Amino acid sequence: MDSTPATDPDLLDKVINLAKRRGFIFQSAEIYGGFRSTYDYGPLGVNMLRNVKAAWWRAMVQMRQDVVGLDAAILGPPAVWAASGHLETFTDPLVDCRKCKERWREDKIDGVCPNCGATEFTEARAFNLMFKTQAGPVEGEGATAYLRPETAQGMFTNFNNVLSTIRKKPPFGIAQIGKSFRNEITPQNFVFRTREFEQMELEFFVPPAEAEQWYRYWIDQRYRWYLDLGIPADQLRLHEHAAADLSHYSRGTTDVEFAYPWGWDELEGIANRGDYDLTQHSNASGTKLEYFDQAANERYTPYVIEPAAGATRAMMAFLLAAYREDEVEGETRTVLRLDWRLAPYQVAVLPLSKKPELEGVSQQVLSLLQPHFACDYDVTQSIGRRYRRQDEVGTPFCITIDFDSLEDAAVTVRDRDSTAQERVAIDDLLAHLRARTNQS
Ligand code: ATP
User: Is 252 left (phi over 0), alpha (psi -120 to 50) or beta?
Assistant: First the structure.
């Protein structure tokens, strides 16, 4: 029986448990009792998170000639956040429960305190989500800095630097992956909403007349990215915001939503930001952020289409979508049906026994595959137990070296999803795995 994620009421707990038990995600500072809403990515988690980011970078930068990358500073001066509107408006409505005194984000609680069930709250007040700190040894005015709450502003403030150093003209984009920080009032649902998280954002600059067309184009591209990496179509949907709900800068926003265990919720937002950002920074800094179109002999402020995704949030969705419990040889197994590009290990090299005769050829197989695939090498426990351990962390291929391998120079390749096994000559192994992962 194949349990589908959407119907399992314990799915979230199972994934959180697996993530901890198998080294994907740990509670930060756990030996000190943990630090609320911060998480550390363990040996398998860091592999997977890097894979999520690499898949994004590949699709958004490497495979295109109209997008370039950037890695901007996390610390920024107040002037940037004044111009962007964050100092004024990057707030959530904060209320206190009159009974238990817990604080909540008003728009997330439907009028009932999730802690004690009371329905009486204080008036909502605007709570700014930015982390404020101080740069340098002197306190006070001039030393204030903020941790960025999104990566986007670095792309806007570097608009002229990028334009003058690369030969691009609108439509073109600047992409960035990096940490962002928001002092969320109610962080929740594991790594879905945390105070420190990673974002993957593209700012795509276009002639104003083409904005709508590019907005639709990016909605479609981003939706397909999740599908391509294995999220089933029935767990993905697009949600276009009504005009009345749009942020101050937005001329249109569409979310890619995922069917989380608690219901549909945001995975990524795609916004048509108009010329808001470049105009704000031009006015505030006194440096014109425009494009001069030589052919038309006209100067204009490009519009910006922004697909903004969370890397850590996407990783969580990929884990939830991949989690299955099925039956193999009369036993229930847990398997992560992760796309091979996202799996923490793509190949496990498993000598059948610890006998020294198998060591040489097993190491040879490892050396053959390791430059091309993320490999685990495991000689402990029975082979059946080792297969289950690899299934549970989503390793697509297990390579078993047995005593016949010493005679026929071949190994067994086991497929994670079907558990089918195939004998493959060591000489053909790399080509075999490349073919099965669609790499010629
Ligand atoms: P929300 O309304 O849920 O607070 P948002 O609409 O403000 O989120 P954006 O500013 O559009 O979110 O951020 C873009 C993406 O960054 C989100 O779709 C999400 O994937 C990710 N993200 C935003 N905030 C967090 C967070 N606190 N923890 C993890 N990921 C986040």
Answer: left
Relative orientation angle of helices 311-322 and 43-57, to the nearest 10 degrees:
110
**Which residue has a Cα nearest atom 20 of ligand 1?**
310
Q: 190 in ligand 1 pocket by Cβ < 6 Å?
A: no
Q: How confident is the model at residue 440 (pLDDT cuts 50, 70, 90)?
A: low
Q: Assign residue 111 a region: left if phi > 0, alpha if psi is -120 to 50, beta otherwise?
A: left
Q: Which residue's C-alpha comes closest to atom 11 of ligand 1?
A: 269
Q: Is the pTM of this model over 0.85?
A: yes
Residues 231, 5: Cα–Cα separation, whole Å? 11
On the question of pLDDT at 7 being above 80, the answer is: no
Q: 270-300 pLDDT, tens per residue?
A: 999 999 999 999 999 999 999 999 999 999 9
> DSSP H helical segments within 286-372, as ranges?
311-322, 356-369
Q: Tally the C-alpha atoms within 13 A of residue 344's C-alpha that lie toward its C-beta.
A: 24
Distance between CA atoms of residues 220 and 77, nearest Å: 35
Question: Taking a C-beta distance cutoff of 8 angstroms, is the pair 350, 320 a contact?
Answer: no
- Report the amino acid identity of residue 76: G
User: CA–CA separation, 379 vs 386, rounded Å?
Assistant: 8
**Helix-strand-coil split of the chain, %, nearest 5:** 35, 30, 35
Q: How far apart are the CA of 366 and the centre of ligand 1, in A?
A: 40
**pLDDT tens column, 337-390:** 999 999 999 999 999 999 999 999 999 999 999 999 999 999 999 999 999 999
Residue minimizing CA distance to atom 29 of ligand 1: 193
Residue 166 in 3-state DSSP? coil
Which one of 236, 313, 315 would you pick to mutate in the ligand 1 pocket, going by the greatest count of ligand atoms within 8 A of its CB?
313
